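Researcher: Let's continue the batch. This sequence belongs to MTH1187 family thiamine-binding protein, and it's 97 residues. Same format as the previous ones, please.
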Amino acid sequence: MIVAFSVTPLGVGEDVGEYVADAVRVVRESGLPNRTDAMFTSIEGEWDEVMDVVRRAVAVVEERAPRVSLVLKADIRPGVTDGLTSKVETVERHLSA
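Model: Same format as before. Here are the structure tokens for MTH1187 family thiamine-binding protein:
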């Protein structure tokens, strides 16, 4: 499964990069395949392990912010691995054709 999610602290002002970095650090330390871009962090693994990482990423932001927003999108395909890479490679292959 691939989960794309964003964690946003609310009530802390406009500069939220420090809080987002705390959440991304949790994801990177998980050891699961992941990517971060300007809008979302994507993580790949089994349901329980991915959702645990998302829960911990929210919790680390929640420790310092009075309110937290979570946006989550999941691609649930049992048996598929390396989707973070293969899905992008497929699009790039079509673009270069």
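Researcher: Any comment?
Model: The chain has three helices and four strands.
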